[in-house]
DNA sequence: GAGTGGTCTAGACCACTTT
DNA sequence: AAGTGGTCTAGACCACTCG
């Protein structure tokens, strides 16, 4: 986070989020920003590109960079938000129950899902409660060759913090798939399902900076507690 | 699409998609690509950035750009795919039934959703069938000050083609929200709901290049026919 | 005509990986 | 030591919007 363009991005973002520059207003021109931040045009443009990609501004040729209305749909779910990070944007009292934690030699399914040839796999099953209702069931499978030393405390706190801060690995990107599936008896027993028979299933593959696949997750949400927000630019 | 970096992007993408360069292999280095395409490093890097953002490659410092496994999760839903575009990636026989098409002065709800002060709004209700099953209910509201002249044929074919090709407007970005909602009696009547009581609701706000909001859509999917795929890079 | 963003170029230094 | 990507700079021309 020491790069100049990232600092400028953060500085501009702060001004947008604090409503110092309001939705509908224009940012200073690239020329202006060059002077303000004592940076080259290219550096400024890198900063603006980050704002652009994350849906904070829209550039209009001949006019400038307009600030968009980020409140319209609040923006909790961008990037690879882990549950702990997500939690901070959620209302209500959120807790984690570690239901299962084991380490075992990778079976066929895991070798396939995690592209492993040998070694151990961690399986972690966690139940997430919101206001004391059990509404999310997370099952993680981790490549034990990449990540090791997972304990119940870690699983109870934050896996991502452990991987990034303690192991010093860098989580880089993920692929997610969202579908709706019937709840099994087992799942109905573990969660407070009310009258629902379906679960929203988010399958997720997470990768490190060097493109190593280290985690496969199935996150099953009670339908009424599920919400996903997306910002997308058109690519033609 | 005439920019040099976009052409290089497309060229590299073709090679990746045709398996000319396979997953796990490295692209030529930036230096190599500069020579191959007779371009500056900056231009090459712009092309690679597009591949990066769309999940086709991962850059590893000191090594190069690895091609990722795009097949792992197929990638139908990136950008603002309209239904017609989506259709092409779907299996099965897909049809559209225009159920309602009207134009009326914006009421309070529409003024709020579309940020209008006055003028007309189009309301279009369409039912999408897959293999003759009615599984998706799309309701579009369009700002009549921006988009005009919509007929049943257009609604039946492709709204986006009309807006982009006939009206010459440029669709630029959208915000989407995915939730699950109970199906109303009306919706149950319009769709083939089998035993399902829930619908996946995708609310979408679509904007033009100059940041004008021109469309608000509610797309309701029968749960078993819904699938959403997402690629995300971590922003810390 | 002045100002805006969009694109492209050429050159430089750094931290990192590999041999 | 050589090669890689990450960052930063300076200068140029274009198409576009606005007054």
Automatic annotation (TrEMBL), chains A, B:
Keyword field: DNA-binding, Transcription, Transcription regulation
UniProt entry tagged with the keyword Transcription regulation: yes
UniProt-listed Pfam families: GntR, UTRA
Domain of life from the UniProt record: Bacteria
InterPro entries linked to this entry: Bact_HTH_transcr_reg, Chorismate_lyase_/UTRA_dom_sf, TreR, Tscrpt_reg_HTH_GntR, UTRA, WH-like_DNA-bd_sf, WH_DNA-bd_sf
Signal peptide interval: none
Xref: Gene3D superfamilies: Chorismate lyase-like, Winged helix-like DNA-binding domain superfamily/Winged helix DNA-binding domain
Residues covered by the HTH gntR-type domain: 2-70
CDD domains linked to this entry: WHTH_GntR
NCBIfam families hit by this protein: trehalos_R_Bsub
The protein's name in its UniProt record: Trehalose operon repressor
Organism per entry: Breznakia pachnodae
